[in-house]
Design a protein that fits this description.
Blueprint lengths: L2 E2 L1 H13 L6 E8 L5 E8 L7 E5 L2 E5 L4 H4 L3 E7 L2 E7 L3 E4 L5 E4 L11
Parallel strand pairs: 1-6, 2-5
Antiparallel strand pairs: 2-3, 3-9, 4-5, 6-7, 8-9
């Protein structure tokens, strides 16, 4: 599973509350791109699709498509807010290599164990 810290859950909740369109949860996906091969994508979604893995994080639901899930399984997401800026921080045990920006990675083909949402 994918773990969101309390700070990440609160940040997503704020984004959902301030969104002009209804949102049922947060979609996390992996797309081609970035300097390491793949990049993380986050967006608010009105609803999940039938093939999604839905992770209930209390006040926030997370939607992950079946192609992205194996590369994200076991990942932890935090939200940092500092003088240098704010944003989501990804800790992905499936990443064999990550770029310095933290939003691009190269997957490890062996994968890892799962964690639950907290």
């Amino acid at each position: 599973m994918i773990t969101l810290t309390e700070k990440a859950i609160n940040a997503v909740g704020r984004f959902i509350a301030s969104s002009e369109t209804p949102s049922a949860g947060l979609r996390i996906e992996v797309t081609d791109g970035g300097c390491s091969g793949y990049q993380y994508g986050l967006k608010l979604e009105a609803e999940n699709t039938p093939d999604d893995t839905v992770i209930d994080c209390g006040t926030v639901k997370v939607f992950v498509d079946p192609v992205s899930f194996p590369m994200l399984d076991g990942m932890s997401i935090d939200f940092l807010d500092s003088i240098d800026g704010s944003g989501f921080k990804f800790s992905n045990p499936n990443a064999a290599k990550s770029c310095a920006c933290g939003s691009s990675f190269n997957p490890n083909p062996s994968g890892t164990g799962t964690k639950t949402c907290s």
